[in-house]
Design brief:
Blueprint: E1 4-12, E2 16-23, E3 35-38, E4 47-49, E5 54-55, H1 62-82, E6 90-93, H2 98-110, E7 114-115, E8 124-126, H3 128-139, H4 145-157
Parallel strand pairs: 6-7, 6-8
Antiparallel strand pairs: 1-2, 1-4, 2-3, 3-5
Helix pairs in contact: 1-2, 1-3, 1-4
């Protein structure tokens, strides 16, 4: 278990929110009781490499982290790196995924962009291509994922995504 922690899963969404229950050798940065998030692709194993973990701060719930962290990371990459906009610009969001569309729209409003339905009237249009580019951008930021996650968690705590409605899954808790 060198460089790994054992977790107990608390919520599953676009990410897994879990609590560290045991810490292996060289698992620097985490202690028993820490709350963490990681990819659902790793949820089948209760032992996870520390390099795949994102710490969840206090005042962010497990359900919020599980549901909003992944779309928040994509939205952040879209609006700050792939296609930045400036305050007051008219923004259209043409993204198929409902949760991501809501997160991008909420963040645009919080950054004082003006949401419009008419693509022809928009200064900036976020599309599926922007989502794909954001996914690539986010994957290249391995060393800075916690920094990006911090901005997403700050937006969650500030209530930016309070109006986002995430489809419910059959089970909020799974055994690891």
């Amino acid at each position: 278990m060198a460089g790994q922690v054992r977790v107990s899963i608390d919520a599953v969404g676009t990410m897994v929110a879990a609590t560290v229950t045991d810490v292996g050798l060289a698992a620097d940065g985490f202690v028993r009781g820490d709350r963490v998030a990681f990819s659902p692709a790793l949820a089948d194993n209760p032992v996870v490499d520390v390099g795949t973990l994102i710490g969840i701060p206090k005042n962010v719930g497990d359900r919020q982290a599980a549901d909003l962290l992944a779309p928040g990371l994509l939205a952040r990459a879209m609006i700050t790196q792939v296609r930045p906009f400036i305050r007051g610009q008219r923004i259209a969001v043409e993204i198929g995924n409902s949760t991501l569309r809501q997160v991008v729209s909420a963040w645009v409003r919080a950054m004082e962009g003006e949401l419009v339905d008419d693509v022809a009237a928009a200064d900036v249009v976020y599309t599926e291509e922007d989502r794909r580019l954001a996914a690539v951008e986010a994957s290249h930021r391995q060393g800075r994922i916690q920094e990006a996650a911090t901005e997403v968690f700050q937006a969650i705590r500030a209530g930016v995504f309070d109006g986002v409605r995430v489809p419910r899954r059959d089970a909020d808790r799974v055994a690891a």
